[in-house]
Design brief:
The chain is mostly helical. It is built from five helices and no strands. It folds into two domains: 32 residues, no CATH class; 40 residues. The longest helix has 40 residues. The relative contact order is 0.05. This is Lipoprotein.
């Protein structure tokens, strides 16, 4: 019972921290590079991408890669089908001769 109470209390107290975690990435960039302009550009571009697409840059890249993988799979299936169809047609044509 005590653990559940601590977990619930922690969730309530830490729920406001979610908004400030968005600033951790730029803060790390400033700490590593010392370049405030780079951190500001990084944060601004991430926010612009999220407002435009509704997805974070990571989610956007993931969805793009999944779409690309699906298209590649479809192309392979079509190529396989066409190859088998060509073999069948060649066999039929050779039988006619």
């Amino acid at each position: 019972m005590r653990k559940i109470l601590i977990i619930l209390l922690s969730l309530v107290l830490l729920s406001a921290c979610a908004q400030s975690t968005a600033l951790i990435g730029p803060a790390i960039t400033i700490g590593n590079t010392g370049n405030v302009m780079q951190a500001a550009f990084s944060y601004g571009s991430n926010m612009a991408i999220k407002q435009t697409t509704g997805k974070t840059p990571g989610e956007l890249v993931t969805s793009y890669m999944e779409e690309k993988k699906e298209k590649k799979k479809i192309r392979k299936e079509i190529a396989s089908y066409l190859e088998s169809h060509i073999k069948i047609m060649r066999k039929k044509l050779s039988e006619k001769k």
